[in-house]
Amino acid sequence: MSARALLVTGLNSQPGWFLNAALAEHPAAVTAIGRRRPAELPANIAWRGVDLETPPRDLPAARVLLHMAPIWLLPPLLDALADAPPAALIAVSSSSARTKARTADSHERRLAERLAHGEQAAQGRAEHHGITCRILRPTLIYGHPSRGIIPRVRGIGRRLRVFPVPMAATGLRQPLHAADLAAALWQLVSAPEDTGASLQEIGGGERLTFGAMIRRILAGAVPPIRPLPVPAPLLRGVLRVAPGDVGPGMLDRLAQDQVADDRVLWQRLGLTPRPFQP
Ligand SMILES: NC(=O)c1ccc[n+]([C@@H]2O[C@H](COP(=O)([O-])OP(=O)(O)OC[C@H]3O[C@@H](n4cnc5c(N)ncnc54)[C@H](OP(=O)(O)O)[C@@H]3O)[C@@H](O)[C@H]2O)c1
Prior knowledge:
This protein is of the alpha/beta class. The protein folds into 2 domains: 6-142 and 176-205 and 260-269, NAD(P)-binding Rossmann-like Domain (Rossmann fold, 3-Layer(aba) Sandwich); 149-172 and 207-252, no CATH class. It has 10 helices and 13 strands. It has helices spanning 14-24, 74-80, 96-99, 106-129, 149-160, 178-190, 210-219, 232-241, 248-252, 263-269; strands at residues 6-9, 30-34, 45-49, 64-67, 88-92, 132-138, 141-142, 162-166, 172-173, 176-177, 199-202, 208-209, 226-230. The strands form 4 sheets. It has a 7-stranded parallel sheet with strand order 3-2-1-4-5-6-11, with helices on both faces. A two-stranded parallel ribbon has the order 7-10. Strands 8-13 form a two-stranded parallel ribbon. β1 (6-9), α1 and β2 (30-34) form a beta-alpha-beta unit. α1 packs across α6 (178-190). The chain is globular and about 60 Å long. It binds NADP nicotinamide-adenine-dinucleotide phosphate. NADP nicotinamide-adenine-dinucleotide phosphate is lined by residues 9-14, 16, 34-36, 51-53, 68-71, 73, 92, 94, 138, 140-141, 148.
């Protein structure tokens, strides 16, 4: 096994999409695993179809494991790699482990529990095997051309010709561009020991209110989409009658700040995340 052999999960994720160029230049063996072969897979990457719910035990040994799939899929993967564990583990969790831990919305609470349990179980296994472990908890991720909040909001806005923006949406958000997250992960892959605590939150280069974030997404559409200010109680009533994948917890958190304490991390990484430019 080469000193820089890499095993990667979640290459179809938003940060994974932005990592292709760096992976294509990686000077050692790279194996990517997942359920769906990525459409644009660099020629140097070996692909293996794997459902991480039930990972096989014959995966190729690697010095570094970069895990971008949901964090709760990491503990079984580490068990599958127990005979030849990696020296370093870089993984993506979510700041929802903290921000959704105490909402009244049971669906959100279950997600937070799943994330926190995945982190703890992965850290326990890393400690047991002497693996250097770095887990990042990103805020909202955006930046993929066809995935995430921006195409979703604009898609709905184009159909309705307006987009409902809840009033009093004063809680701060700190959206993180997937390319900046990819750069941070790549830096960690290169030097996992130099980058501080085992579990760290990470956000983008600008903090703005939830309402301002949605308005900026709408303003950047071509042609721009008109925001429609709606009182939160009215929106709550609409969601009750026509429930989608946005639950009541999202409305409860509109006035709460969801930002990351990440200044030291970005300094250590030697990177500057971009402001929110959807
Ligand atoms: N989206 C956000 O705003 C946000 C915010 C904070 C944290 N996060 C975290 O950041 C990471 C990336 O999020 P994302 O929204 O960009 O990506 P995503 O849509 O959640 O992508 C998930 C990735 O995980 C893989 N995956 C999922 N289940 C799998 C399974 N059973 N077996 C094998 N692979 C599996 C998928 O591979 P296949 O395509 O092969 O199924 C895909 O590559 C995730 O860990 C997510 O929890 C996301």
